[in-house]
Design a protein that fits this description.
- The protein is α/β, with parallel strands linked by helices and 208 residues long.
- The chain has six helices and ten strands.
- Helix 1 runs parallel beside helix 6.
- The protein is globular and about 45 Å long.
- The chain binds glycinamide ribonucleotide.
Length: 208
């Protein structure tokens, strides 16, 4: 049984999708938020999952926050740490500690649109396709080996709300899929690239 800790900052719909996928061989050991009022905490608690808050505003700097966060994570001895809408930049020391077992979902087709406000920036750039990426976390922000991506069309008349909703629906498909592959020991890292054994097309194309 693989132990998984999920970190959130808000709504937690991606965490919810992973929990509801009920992945064989995986146990969600804890859901941890850096914000006390994160909506997702109530869902996790209602599922009987251990929850914790490590409030970043209580720490002097990133290093102190990351050390406190790691201490809470490590109580659960996780095989995998999942960033599901966790909106804090993590220090290289923290990332190193979980190398190869720390994954993130980012709402764009990386390496395009790293950082924040990805949907608005995609609209402003006039791209015709957009999407979301699950990747291993490395010290550099929104980089790291890509595990799975989903592509969605950008439609005429889209605003940020419409585009983000289209992307979010795909996040809820690909994030549990990535976790499932990892739990099945099918994902390996080959330099800057992740490989998924036995999967010819580790991407999802949604036609309009
Ligand atoms: C998701 O769209 C996720 O891709 C994004 O935050 C949202 C969280 O939604 N993550 C980032 O922007 C990370 N830089 P959720 O709380 O409902 O899962």
């Amino acid at each position: 049984m693989k132990s998984i800790v999920i970190l959130i900052s808000g709504r937690g719909s991606n965490m919810e999708a992973i929990v509801q996928a009920a992945i064989p061989g995986a146990r969600i050991a804890a859901v941890i938020s850096n914000r006390p009022n994160a909506g997702g905490l109530a869902f996790a608690a209602a599922q009987g999952i251990a929850t914790a808050v490590v409030d970043h505003t209580a720490y002097a700097d990133r290093a102190a926050f990351d050390a406190a966060l790691a201490a809470v994570i490590n109580r659960h001895a996780p095989d995998l740490v999942v960033l599901a809408g966790f909106m804090r930049v993590l220090t290289p020391d923290f990332v190193r500690q979980y190398e190869g077992r720390l994954i993130n979902i980012h709402p764009s087709l990386l390496p395009s649109f790293t950082g924040l406000h990805t949907h608005q920036r995609a609209l402003e750039a006039g791209v015709r396709v957009h999407g979301t990426t699950v990747h291993f976390v490395t010290a550099e922000l929104d980089c790291g080996p890509i595990i799975i991506q989903a592509v969605v069309p950008v439609m005429a008349g889209d605003d940020e709300a419409a585009l983000s909703a289209r992307v979010l629906a795909q996040e809820h498909r690909i994030f549990p899929q990535a976790v499932r592959w990892i739990v099945e020991d099918r994902v390996s890292i080959d330099g800057s690239v992740a490989r998924v054994a036995g999967v010819r097309e580790p991407g999802v194309l949604i036609s309009p």
